[in-house]
Structure formats: C-alpha cells, structure tokens
C-alpha cells in the first residue's frame, strides 16, 4: 500500500501546471536575480541575506534528518556486519570515482590549456586576499581532520552542523539501538516519526527556495559582475565542459550499467539541481535528496549512510576543480609539470580533498591545501581564481550532488536493496514528463 502510494506520488505531482512547480519558480528567480545583479548591482548585493537565510533554514534540519534516517535504517538492519559492508562498498566506490574525476580534470586541463598566455610573475601578485584561506588550509592536516570527526559533545555536533560528526554519532547510536533488539523498537518508531516530521519541515522550507535562489544569485552577479569573468572565460568554459562530460559520460555509463538513463535521473532531481544552482550550496539540496532517493527505490539504511558520507568523501566536482585549477595556475606561470609530478598531484589532491570538510569556502581551502603540500606551483596564483571561484563553485556543487545521488543508487544495487519496480516506474514517468 505504501509502495504504491510512493510510486503514485510523482504522477500526481506531474498533473500540476508547470508554472506551479518548484523548478519553474526557482528558474524564474535565478533569471530575475541575474538581471537585478547586472542592471542594479548595488541593490542586488543587499539581497544576500535572502540566500543566507534559506541555506541556514536547510542546514537547521540537516542534522536531525541525518540522525533519524541513519539510526532507523541501522536499527532496521539489525546486523552490524551489513553496516560495515555497506560502508566499505561506499568508500570503495568513492575512492575509485574520485580518482577518476581527478585524472579527468588533469587531462582536460591539458586539452584546453586555459592558463596559457597569462605569462605571470609571482612577485607581481598581491596575495593579501588569500590570507584567510591559507590560514584555514594550514590547520587542515590528516590527523587533525580525523580528530575533528569526533565532536566535543554529542550536542556540539548538531550545533555546529558538522555532517561527519553527526554521522559518527548516528552510527554509534544506531548500533547501540540495534543491539537492544525488541526493547528498542518503540524508540525506533518514535525516531521514524521524528524523521517524517522534519521532512515535513523541509517541504515547508522549500516553498521559499525561489526567494533564496534569487538572493544568492543576485548577490553573486552584483558583487563580481558578469564582466569579471570575461578574462577567465576559457577556464570557466573548460571547467563546465569537463563537468558535463563527467556527468553525461562517466556517470552516464555507470547509470546505464545499473539500467537507467542519467538524463532521466537528472530530470528526476531537476528541482534539487536548480536549488544548488541558485544557492551554490550542495547542502541546500541534501534533505530533498535523501527523500527522493528513498522514493526512487533505495533502502533507507543505504541512503542514510551513503549521502552524508559522500559529502566528505565523494566530491566529484570538487576533484575536477582541484586538478584543473592547479594546472591552470601552473600554465599561467609557464611551469611545466612532469608526469611524475602530475601523478603526485593526483595523490596529494586525493588527500587534501578530504581535509576541509565543514570549512567555509571548502573547495578553495582544499585548493590552498593542495598547493601548500605541492610547492612546485606558487600559492599566489590562486588570486587569479579568487574572483571567479563562486561561479565555478556552483558547477562543482551541482556535480557533487549528482555524483552522490548516483553513488547511492550504485551501493543500493550492489547490496541488492534497489527496488527496480520503483526505479522503473519513476524513470519511465519522467521520460514522458
């Protein structure tokens, strides 16, 4: 009964006129934000609180939703060996695809040569604007990152909104609750009701998603201006072409192996993609992704483990950004990297891409960390990217969101916990939408 209701849900929503759908509202808001930012930049900059408020509203419920989803999923498993197996498969997939995305970013950087022709001298660059990022990067080594996963208190993890800390507490709580057996069932049912309540809150918050997207995009265009990207259009264009290639080809092949089209999946999560596009934050779509992937046929336990972990360990778009940005800076300074140095870069980026989770401007901090560990290229070259980082950050956030969605489907199928009837019903519907 519940399954049929879930599968019928997309069909009911498809009957609404397009002008009443969330994706249409967000798309219109983004266009209006771009226009305001271009023609009235002073006023557009003042719209920033609208975007910040929306992101804060979403982050407010991420912790409780992850906690309730992971705990109820693990308690439903009842087998800790299965939990370890699911986590191990997820990490294996993350590392393989992450390595592939790093290499693709490097290859595309050579193919497009976005930094050629700048002919920069490190001594002529003012690095004052990088101070905050280099300070943060110096404090992000592997040991401190691992220690940072452990919160000071149970409640501090939720107050700071650190996804990995919340995930750790959730796994421990879920394991303890599963060990209680039948005695823990009343608490499991209560947490499941809490989860449904918080998802209800998300639905309410999403009603103002268009306002948040409008505020964020207006601020971005009003602050930096469309003209600010012109000198670096080659890098931005190469970066987005690479992201499209990765999503359509790499994730497309993986999706085809699972038996569905990546284009249909993109259509299914189009509202989440537009929310990320408007806010430049993948976290803004996290609660919706959790719910939609369950509706698509993934088991609650797999969704609860893979999506939160993926926000630190499966950053496909960020990885492409790292290697392309480093190669761009090297080309701008006319620095030739040997094959050994480039392979070392991939290894360094694999580590530093995990080292700035939960840090403001995480992708830029990761880039700083990579250059600090890989001193062949001057850190000062990051000044070139600082002004366009937000434009690139939007693309990498979208790619990260899509990549984590596909990863969840892969691990669900790997565990034989992907409901093919739900998947086919939803995907076939989206084809005729």
TrEMBL record:
The chain crosses the membrane at residues 21-40, 60-78, 90-112, 163-180, 201-226, 232-254, 359-388, 395-414. It is found in: Membrane. InterPro entries: Na-dicarboxylate_symporter, Na-dicarboxylate_symporter_CS, Na:dicarbo_symporter_sf. It is a multi-pass membrane protein. This is Aerobic C4-dicarboxylate transport protein. PANTHER family: AEROBIC C4-DICARBOXYLATE TRANSPORT PROTEIN, PROTON/GLUTAMATE-ASPARTATE SYMPORTER. Keywords: Membrane, Symport, Transmembrane, Transmembrane helix, Transport. It holds the Pfam family SDF.
């Amino acid at each position: 009964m519940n399954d049929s209701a879930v599968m019928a849900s997309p069909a009911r929503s498809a009957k609404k006129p397009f002008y009443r759908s969330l994706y249409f509202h967000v798309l219109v808001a983004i266009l209006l934000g771009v226009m305001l930012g271009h023609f009235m930049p002073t006023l557009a900059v003042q719209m920033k609180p609208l975007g910040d408020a929306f992101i804060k509203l979403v982050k407010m419920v991420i912790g409780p939703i992850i906690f309730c989803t992971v705990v109820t999923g693990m308690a439903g498993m009842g087998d800790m060996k299965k939990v370890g197996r699911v986590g191990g498969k997820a990490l294996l997939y993350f590392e393989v695809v992450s390595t592939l995305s790093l290499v693709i970013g490097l290859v595309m950087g050579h193919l497009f040569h976005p930094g050629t022709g700048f002919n920069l001298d490190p001594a002529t660059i003012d690095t004052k604007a990088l101070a905050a990022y280099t300070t943060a990067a110096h404090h992000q080594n592997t040991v401190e990152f691992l220690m940072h996963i452990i919160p000071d208190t149970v409640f501090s993890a939720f107050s700071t909104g650190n996804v990995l800390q919340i995930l750790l507490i959730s796994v421990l709580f879920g394991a303890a609750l599963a060990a209680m057996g039948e005695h823990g069932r009343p608490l499991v049912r209560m947490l499941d009701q809490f989860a449904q309540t918080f998802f209800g809150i998300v639905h309410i918050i999403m009603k103002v998603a268009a306002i948040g997207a409008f505020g964020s995009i207006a601020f971005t265009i009003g602050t930096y201006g469309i003209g600010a990207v012109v000198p670096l259009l080659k890098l931005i264009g190469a970066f987005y072409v690479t992201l499209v290639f990765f999503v359509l080809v790499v994730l497309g092949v993986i999706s085809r192996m699972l038996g569905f089209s990546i284009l249909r999946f993109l259509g299914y999560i189009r509202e989440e993609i537009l929310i990320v596009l408007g806010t430049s934050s993948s976290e803004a779509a996290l609660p919706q992704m959790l719910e939609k992937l369950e509706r698509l046929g993934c088991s609650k336990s797999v969704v609860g483990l893979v999506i939160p972990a993926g926000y630190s360990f499966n950053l496909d778009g960020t990885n492409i950004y790292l290697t392309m940005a480093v190669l761009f800076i090297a080309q701008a300074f006319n620095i030739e990297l040997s094959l050994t140095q480039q392979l070392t870069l991939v290894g360094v980026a694999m580590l530093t891409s995990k080292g700035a989770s939960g840090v403001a401007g995480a992708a830029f901090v990761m880039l700083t960390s990579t250059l600090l560990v890989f001193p062949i290229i001057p850190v000062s070259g990051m000044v070139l990217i600082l002004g366009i980082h937000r434009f690139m950050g939007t693309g990498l956030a979208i790619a990260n969101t899509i990549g984590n969605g596909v990863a969840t489907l892969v691990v669900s199928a790997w565990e034989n916990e992907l409901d093919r009837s739900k998947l086919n019903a939803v995907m076939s519907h989206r084809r005729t939408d």
